[in-house]
């Protein structure tokens, strides 16, 4: 893969967020409106046929809301669009993510292996809905409620990776502090720890914990993810303060993968980690 193929050059950073109402979502909305008018349907009637309120249709047409896949499929059929709307479905789906994460979302969805090291919060692939909601509510500047709901839906949709087949190999190392932060309250943390226990029992998932008391920790430079694509190509993704870097340089990626291997060797084994999470649950 050439550098820049995914829209990010080696080490390049994306802006924190897109401006609302721009890009593919706006283009989709305009196309939807043209097709609806061509079909001679008013919004309320069209909404009734596709199973959505006229107000929702207006939001989709104006690019203020991102339409879900089932709406796109149904709209294409009702408007006899011949696949024009369905052809935009993948790009529209990517728009539900913050700009800085869109390339990573695509890579994640096609990865055969992910190695994830987290130091601040539980990784999005492992989060419960309430944990996600709590994190998004803490964002500054504040996110509006519609954006929060959109981000929750997008983050939970990523968890389909656990039911994919062939199953990707998923490895997570979390710093102990991540598991002790009562973000959103003790009940939210309790549910999150319970989910980690359930997810850690999947055959293709390994969850490890880096104890706070470790004197050696190769992860001092912060969180990162090593992605392996079909064919063996690897990339490294890093994120901080709403900005991201995607490294494609082979030597840099090789070093990141080696660093992750050392981190894994320093952390608790998957079996020990699940026992430790159970212990933390007992303390809540």
How would you describe the overall organization of this protein?
The protein has about 280 residues and is an alpha/beta fold. The chain contains twelve helices and six strands. The protein has helices spanning about 25-40, 45-50, 55-60, 70-80, 90-95, 100-110, 130-135, 145-155, 175-180, 185-200, 250-265, 270-284; strands spanning about 115-120, 170-175, 205-210, 225-230, 235-240, 245. The protein has a six-stranded mixed β-sheet with strand order 3-2-1-4-5-6, with helices on both faces. α7 (about 130-135) runs antiparallel to α8 (about 145-155) and α10 packs antiparallel against α12 (about 270-284). The radius of gyration is 21 Å and the shape is elongated. The relative contact order is 0.13.
Task: Compose a concise summary of this entry.
The chain is an alpha/beta fold and 284 residues long. Helices cover 45% and strands 13% of the residues. It has a six-stranded mixed β-sheet, with helices on both faces.
Supply the key terms.
284 residues, alpha/beta, six-stranded mixed beta sheet, 13% strand, elongated
